[in-house]
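Researcher: We plan to redesign the surface later, but first we want a full-length starting point. Tokens attached.
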């Protein structure tokens, strides 16, 4: 099965689990493609920064629902330190 192309962040690549969540929801994917690379970078880093798998899973779902809800960046996130 080939990976579906999806835009990345400035520094970070989209991890497989986040890619799966975004490509399975056409609305979330459309919003993802329309936000800036810096905003995508923030979402990716926020997901990757989770220390526990359960937290990471919740964050991935939240990326999807927040994008659908119109949010363009993670709430209460100081920002990616890797940019």
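Model: Full-length starting sequence:
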């Amino acid at each position: 099965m080939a990976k579906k192309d999806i835009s990345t962040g400035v520094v970070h690549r989209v991890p497989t689990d986040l890619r799966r969540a975004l490509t399975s929801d056409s609305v979330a994917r459309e919003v993802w493609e329309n936000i800036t690379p810096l905003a995508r970078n923030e979402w990716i880093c926020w997901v990757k920064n989770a220390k526990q798998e359960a937290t990471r899973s919740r964050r991935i779902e939240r990326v999807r629902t927040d994008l659908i809800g119109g949010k363009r960046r993670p709430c209460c996130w100081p920002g990616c330190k890797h940019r």
